[in-house]
Amino acid sequence: MAKLTVNSYEELAARLGEKIGESEWLLVDQERINLFADATLDHQWIHVEPERAKVESPYKSTIAHGYLTLSLLPHMWQEIIEVNNLKMMVNYGMDKMRFGRPVLVNSRIRLVATLDSIDNLRGICKAGIKFHIEIEGERKPALEGIATFLYYFE
């Protein structure tokens, strides 16, 4: 899917209920997992010790932190949509978020997003984006939920 360009509240509102797009596939390798562990001080062995994980983990490999998967959402969202004529955009919240499946090291993930709700709050656009972070080759998503963004159009 081509990247969606939106220039106003009305243009975004016209997409209510529609699939906004899909990001490119993104590799989650051990280096990315290790960097996230360093940034968050979460060095649990199931994430950062490949040899131990081969033996002791039920997955037989390391897995990405769930919050690493979540933290990649803004990057993948920017691949899907370009929103112009903004003063600013604010991440407002997450609802109904569920981790459905672990992301094994060297898996590829992507974001699939749908405009679930939209409201005009005295000139501020409140958009609810239903998202699924898919794992290539897997039926069940790694993560799903509704992300709410506030767009302050000029």
Question: SS-based structural class?
Answer: alpha+beta
Through-space gap between termini: 27 Å
- Broad shape: elongated
Specify the helix fraction band: 25-40%
Overall mean confidence score, pLDDT? 97
The major pleated sheet works out as:
6 strands, antiparallel
Order of helices and strands: EHEEHHHHHEEEEE
The tally of strands reads: 8
In angstroms, what is the radius of gyration? 17 Å
How many alpha or pi helices? Answer: 6
- The amount of beta strand, in percent, is 35-45%
Instruction: State the low-pLDDT regions, or none.
Output: none
What labels would you give this structure?
154 residues; six-stranded antiparallel beta sheet; 6 helices; elongated; single chain; two-stranded parallel sheet; alpha+beta
Please provide a written account of the structure.
The chain is of the alpha+beta class. It is 27% helix and 42% strand. The chain has helices at 9-13, 30-40, 45-48, 50-56, 66-71, 73-80; strands at 4-6, 19-22, 26-28, 81-83, 86-99, 107-121, 124-135, 143-153. Strands 2, 3, 5, 6, 7 and 8 form a six-stranded antiparallel beta sheet that branches. It has a two-stranded parallel ribbon with strand order 1-4. Strand 6 (107-121) and strand 7 (124-135) form a beta hairpin.
Topology (SSEs and partners):
Blueprint: E1 4-6, H1 9-13, E2 19-22, E3 26-28, H2 30-40, H3 45-48, H4 50-56, H5 66-71, H6 73-80, E4 81-83, E5 86-99, E6 107-121, E7 124-135, E8 143-153
Parallel strand pairs: 1-4
Antiparallel strand pairs: 2-6, 3-6, 5-8, 6-7, 7-8
